[in-house]
Amino acid sequence: MSRDETPPRIVGARTVYEGWARYLVAEVRMPDGTRIGREVEDHGPAVAVLPYDPERRAALLVRQFRTPPCFVDGTASVLEAPAGLREEDDPGACARREAFEEVGLRLSVLEPVGRVWSLPGLSTERIDLYLAPYRAADREGAGGGLADEHESIEVVEIALGELAVMADRGEIVDMKTLCLIQTLRLRHPSLFPASSGERP
Fold first, then answer.
1. What superfamily does domain 46-190 belong to in CATH?
2. Where do the structural domains in the chain lie, given as residue ranges?
3. What is the pLDDT of residues 80-104, one digit of tens each?
4. Residue 161: partners with Cβ closer than 8 Å, 6 or more residues away
5. Model pLDDT for residues 108-147, shown as the tens digit of each residue
6. CA–CA separation, 83 and 96 (whole Å)
7. Phi first, then psi: what are they for 91, rounded to 5°?
8. Does 136 belong to an annotated binding site?
9. Could you tell me if 191 and 57 are in contact, meaning their C-beta atoms sit under 8 angstroms apart?
10. 123, 116 contact by CB (below 8 A)
11. Is 5 labelled as part of a ligand binding site?
């Protein structure tokens, strides 16, 4: 499409399924007047936060079952940063709530990383990403998620050096988590061993 052309625009949409998420087919009018259908998965905004302890050089993550990876290749669980759908207007408040529910942390300082589309070709999900320093004393709860949401979450504390090794080996398969780990390495390189291949 050239700069002078009229951009594509949505001229209609119909819902084809509504459950935890909503699935729509949008009718898009292209610059040449052609109308095409595009599927949209809609469940709204989300947040993700990577808590890290700068003194002990560790991070708190969660390991949990995810149906799509299991469906694709039998993956039993995925290692992720605490995350969830945004119920509050303030994404920071949501990040703090998710951190307490999932890993038992009372976070105070949040370091914004960005607001990104997780899958712009299909989903309406836009995630606010944060880094968040914590201390051992901030661990006030057990975490593990909410029973009424059928969450089965294992809380995992990992040394930052080991986390860097896992990222470099391609063992971090969740995109938001990989983005947060790499951002932490760029912003706070002194927290990591000099070589990413060196274990702490």
1. Nucleoside Triphosphate Pyrophosphohydrolase (3.90.79.10)
2. 9-42, 46-190
3. 999 999 988 899 999 999 999 999 9
4. 57, 192, 193, 198, 199, 200
5. 999 999 999 999 999 999 999 999 999 999 998 777 655 5
6. 10
7. -65, -30
8. no
9. yes
10. no
11. no
Residue 178: φ, ψ to 5°: -60, -45
Q: Is 190 helix (H, G, I), strand (E, B) or coil?
A: helix
Q: Is 162 annotated as a binding residue?
A: no
For residue 98, say whether it is annotated as part of any ligand binding site.
yes
Which pair of structure tokens corresponds to residue 188?
């706070």
**Among candidate residues 196, 135, 146, 153, the one with its CA nearest the CA of residue 61:** 153
Is the pTM of the predicted complex or chain greater than 0.85? yes
In sign, the C-alpha dihedral spanning 144, 72, 125, 78 is positive
Structure tokens at 118: 């997780």
Residue 190, phi then psi, degrees to nearest 5: -70, -15
Residues forming a β-bridge with 171: none
